[in-house]
From TrEMBL:
Organism of origin: Actinomycetospora chibensis
Protein name as catalogued: Acyl-CoA dehydrogenase family protein
InterPro entries: Acyl-CoA_DH_CS (IPR006089), Acyl-CoA_Oxase/DH_mid-dom (IPR006091), Acyl-CoA_Oxase/DH_mid-dom_sf (IPR046373), AcylCo_DH-like_C (IPR036250), AcylCo_DH/oxidase_C (IPR009075), AcylCoA_DH/ox_N (IPR013786), AcylCoA_DH/ox_N_sf (IPR037069), AcylCoA_DH/oxidase_NM_dom_sf (IPR009100)
Family from the record: Belongs to the acyl-CoA dehydrogenase family.
Source organism phylogeny: Bacteria, Bacillati, Actinomycetota, Actinomycetes, Pseudonocardiales
Ranges where the record places region Disordered: 397-417
Keywords: FAD, Flavoprotein, Oxidoreductase
Length: 456
């Protein structure tokens, strides 16, 4: 297990440099065009593939980083460029996460390449969970899957599906045993052009207009039995555990990993808005000087500076926990998404306010960021859902009686347990030194002071 640290590796810094350069040089210049046209940015996705940012192994490598930081670092920089284009680039990673969580190694090898394609032959993937009547309520899914011979048959509707209807691979969450609630669900792979799966309509959105979002219908949609993620033996074992009151929902593992991902996306929009507002306020002059000198402008920006960093630290912690299998005992994943999404909305709104009338028209990018930011308080669970998740942990004494650091994993033995910083042995040694100091010569005091100083 990797220790939680804020120290970035040389590889992290190189990832940041490469991604930021791509976001600044390729993504931002194209953002307004694709936002206005509301078109899938195929050209930019192909460029991302050529730069190594769009393939299954790249995302698998980011997810496998034991520090947990590679993925949020990448996402923040990419979404700093454009949230809509960024979402199109990373949407297959959400489906890949579900495939990785629920599928077998053979299924991963079979379908992961079909989710991304390669430069010159780009493919897309989609994750279909939400439904018209349920929204964030995964316990209220109506899409059903039933076994008929060597096939599974899907019936139901899905909505808010990124890449829905144009994806080469769609991972679909469906109910196989209604009596078991969320624990009676499974995930299935539905390839493009499968009879019975159709795009009902493309959704026109407030923001993220460069990403394709659609409503899907499954009507007697037949797929091979082998397209059940995890296989039938694993499904039967899971259902049997659920009947005994054990196990967890099929989509829950995916959400645990994706909520910090969504938080990192929101941070990209928040940072873009914040940086632009600061730059504008330094250059815009009114009443005899730059408006940044007015507390009415600088104080809200100061609050945002603190809140963005706080949200980033929550995101890094949740990402590290997810990467190392540390349970979210107090809703730490939901905390990261809640705070990052809400600070993104406030940062974008403040950017519009700082720019005044110019912020309200599309001459400046802040009105687009304002429209984009709102999504993060809604998708992958609304802010209300995140508060509900966190609130439910308050009934658990283990989650509320002690702070997080009391139960974080780590080496609880060894020499440092007895002689490390803050140990009783060091405290006693310090007391003895202070007693001797009254009689010791200056040379001995200097040596003792060096030994006792921070960092020794």
């Amino acid at each position: 297990m990797s220790a939680f640290t804020l120290e970035l590796t040389p590889a992290h810094h190189e990832l940041i440099r490469r991604t930021h350069a791509f976001a600044e040089d390729v993504v931002r210049p194209a953002a307004a065009k694709y936002d206005a046209a509301e078109e899938c940015p195929w050209e930019i996705v192909d460029r991302a593939a050529r730069e190594g940012f769009y393939n299954a192994l790249f995302y698998a490598d980011l997810i496998a980083d034991p520090t947990g930081l590679s993925l949020p670092l990448f996402l923040e920089e990419m979404f700093w460029g454009c949230a809509g284009i960024g979402l199109t680039v990373v949407l297959p990673a959400l489906a890949l996460s579900a495939l990785n969580q629920a599928g077998t190694p053979e299924q991963l090898a079979r379908w992961a390449p079909e989710m991304f394609g390669e430069p010159g032959d780009i493919k897309l993937a989609a994750l279909a969970v939400s439904e018209p009547q349920g929204g964030s309520d995964v316990a209220n899914l109506q899409t059903r899957a039933r076994k008929e011979g060597d096939e599974w048959v899907l019936d139901g509707e899905k909505i808010w599906i990124g890449n829905g209807g144009i994806a080469d691979v769609t991972i679909v969450n469906a109910v196989v045993d209604p009596e078991l609630g969320t624990k009676g669900q499974a995930m299935f792979v539905v390839p493009k052009d499968t009879p019975g799966m159709e795009q009902v309509r493309r959704l026109r959105k407030l923001g993220h207009r460069a990403s394709h979002t659609a409503e899907l219908r499954f009507e007697s949609c037949r797929i091979p039995a082998e397209n059940l993620l995890g296989g039938e033996d694993k499904l039967e074992h899971k259902l049997e555990k659920a009947r005994r009151g054990e196990g967890k929902p099929a989509a829950l593992g995916t959400f645990e990993q994706t909520r910090p991902m969504v938080a990192a996306m929101a941070l990209g929009v928040a940072r873009a808005s914040f940086e632009y507002a600061c730059s504008y306020a330094r250059q815009r002059e009114a009443f005899g000087g730059p408006i940044i000198g007015n507390q009415g402008v600088s104080f809200p920006l100061a609050d945002l500076a603190a809140d963005i960093d706080a949200a980033r630290l929550l995101t890094w912690r949740a990402s590290w926990m997810a990467a190392n299998g540390v349970p979210f005992q107090a809703g730490e994943g939901s905390m990261s998404k809640l705070k990052a999404s809400e600070v993104a909305v406030r940062a974008a709104e403040q950017a519009v306010q700082t720019c005044g009338g110019w912020g309200y028209v599309d001459d400046l990018p802040v009105e687009k960021w304002y429209r984009d930011a709102k999504l993060y308080t809604i998708f992958e669970g609304t802010s209300e859902i995140q508060r509900m998740v966190i609130g439910r942990t308050l009934t658990d004494p283990e989650a509320t009686d002690t702070p997080l650091h009391h139960h974080l994993p780590g080496d609880r033995g060894g020499v440092s347990r007895k002689f490390g910083h803050g140990s009783l042995a060091r405290a006693r040694a310090g007391e003895a030194f202070m007693r001797l100091a009254k009689k010791a010569p200056d040379s001995v005091l200097r040596l003792g002071g060096k030994l006792a100083s921070p960092g020794a």
